[in-house]
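User: I'm curious whether this sequence folds into something compact or stays loose and floppy. Could you predict its structure so I can see for myself?
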Amino acid sequence: MRKNTIYLDYQATTPLAPEAREAMLRWLSGPDDLSFANPHSPHAPGRAAAAAIEAAREQVAELLPPGGRVIFTGSATEALNMAIRGCGTRHVAMSAIEHAAVLDTARACVAETTVLPVGEDGLVPEDAAIPASTGLVAVMQVNNEVGTIQPVDTLASHAHAVGALFLCDAVQGAGKLAPPEGADMIALSAHKLYGPKGIGALWVRDGVELAPLILGGGQEQGLRSGTLSPALCAGFGVAAALAVQRREDDAQHIESLWETAYNILEKWDLNGAETVRWHGNLNVRRDGLDVARLMSDLRGVAFSAGSACASGSGRPSHVLKAMGLSDAETKSSVRLGFGRYTTLGEIADACARLNAAAAAQGV
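Assistant: Here's the prediction. I'll summarize afterward.
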């Protein structure tokens, strides 16, 4: 398929890095080279596949603090489920703007939950009250809808002060920001950092014990039974290594894209803090805007009216509502996500089209 759309939905998923794709192809060959072998088998082809997985595990670990282990999962959602269900707590405190993988899992399997509010800036206060009975605190590093960067290291210290573990959803921050050093568990997703879909990871600090999420074979350190894909692991590993190598260059490119978009969209209101955020996420609103019409008019630009996970629900964004926006304001908001492969020309063109389409609506 030829590219004829400007892609600005990097929070939903990122393009697969060519280097990651190349690493995956080595493990997707036919029967002649035995690269299809089960990595949990003891013969030579199996051991080769297992070695590729362990190499990838080391590469992913470079994104994370020292003193922990990386457990491969099928997604970050699975990783978050593993952490919440596996730690055995009866009381979870979580921010109001967490991903549904945290909110829904905690509400489904924990006896008591506490919601930590956020301000109009989309930030959890550093002095947020954590009940003494809390066993696990869950706060994401970078919000997926508005891009605000949470004070996770400070909140982790507060969690530890009441004897709780700290879980950080770092899906949007991994490979872009320094890892949350104070966390006890960190969830990652490969396809949010230019790796393949279908694989994530949970980092678990040494000494933290979890009950298995999936039984049936004892793979992945006894916590997640099932045959691992060497191809997916290899792609994840190379994507992680690239993120480490390119972090400074990627960050500089993002700043250029942000400045271009922010200046062109000067008549739009920014949702969330301007500075304490990842600048690859631009969530803006224009009062009176019909977003459904906007998306229909701009079929050549791929952007979002909210998170991909909640699209089509018809409900106002729980993130924007938690920040104090009205239903009308949430429904007039759009999210632009850009990254490594977005060009300055694309972002300028897309933002000019957004302005023109909004003006055509008379707003």
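Summary: The chain has a mean pLDDT of 95. The first helix runs from residue 18 to 25.
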